[in-house]
Q: What sequence folds into this?
């Protein structure tokens, strides 16, 4: 279960984002969601019940979009709104995808652009224009269903969803679990428009520093990588895309399958090598 606090002002959109984020763990495994249970913390004495109604309405929309059913929920009185889902799903044993199956020679494909962390920080500071708020929100509330279905169709070796540990942190988890090393080309990583500009202004989320500490001993920078572009790889994401390790000979087929499903901000961002569970970042 993923469980987090608001990153946008609109409670309906917050509910959508929280639900999409919760469902991503299943999609990263190639699974199909079956049931979802609401888990809510809410300051009932201080907030209008209409706010809670909108959060749950947004969550329900994404549950239905995923083809799952709501199986009840739990609520707790709390000073700060929090919302998430406990989800169950099913996957054929021969099509189950973990983060431990990456193999040397695999291509690395990222299915959503990066930048929600720094943009959310800019939004909290009142600096994000409405069009970028809408763009950030659209990325966060979109399901990873199509990317997951394409994985099942093509056949991949490993996958992980990109959330609070950023691209570098979750990539490192894949490298360690797979007992290999990842090479990420920073210049190929798709970014949400405007995110890099705000990173250059120093609007670095607190969570990004935690990601850097987590990755400190296992991330190697090779070559002249722009400092702020490098920072984007450590940006803690909310409801990010999937990082997929796909056999090199199937990489173009997977990218084509994504494009056919309407996912246009996807990219081949690197590859897998023999190694010791580290990441090398190149320009």
A:
């Amino acid at each position: 279960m993923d469980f987090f606090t608001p990153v946008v002002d609109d409670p309906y959109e917050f509910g959508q984002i929280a639900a999409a984020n919760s469902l991503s763990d299943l999609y990263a495994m190639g699974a199909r969601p079956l049931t979802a249970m609401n888990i809510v913390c809410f300051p009932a004495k201080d907030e209008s019940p209409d706010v809670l109604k909108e959060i749950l309405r947004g969550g329900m929309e994404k549950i239905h979009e995923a083809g799952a059913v709501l199986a009840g929920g739990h609520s707790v009185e709390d000073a700060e709104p929090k919302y998430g889902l406990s989800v169950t799903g099913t996957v054929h044993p021969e099509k189950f995808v973990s983060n431990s199956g990456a193999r040397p020679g695999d291509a690395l494909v990222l299915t959503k652009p990066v930048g929600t962390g720094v943009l959310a920080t800019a939004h909290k500071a009142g600096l994000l224009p409405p069009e970028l708020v809408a763009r950030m929100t659209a990325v966060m509330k979109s399901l990873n269903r199509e990317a997951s279905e394409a994985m099942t169709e093509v056949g991949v070796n490993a996958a992980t969803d990109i959330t609070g540990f950023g691209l570098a942190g979750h990539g490192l988890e894949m490298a360690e679990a797979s007992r290999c090393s990842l090479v990420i080309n920073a210049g190929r990583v798709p970014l949400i428009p405007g995110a890099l500009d705000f990173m250059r202004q120093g609007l670095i989320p607190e969570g990004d520093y935690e990601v850097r500490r987590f990755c400190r001993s296992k991330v190697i920078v090779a070559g002249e990588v722009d400092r702020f572009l490098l920072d984007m790889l450590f940006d803690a994401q909310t409801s990010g895309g999937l990082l997929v390790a796909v056999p090199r000979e199937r990489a173009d087929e997977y990218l084509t399958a994504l494009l056919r499903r309407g996912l246009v901000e996807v990219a081949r961002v690197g590859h897998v090598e023999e190694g010791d569970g580290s990441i090398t970042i190149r320009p």
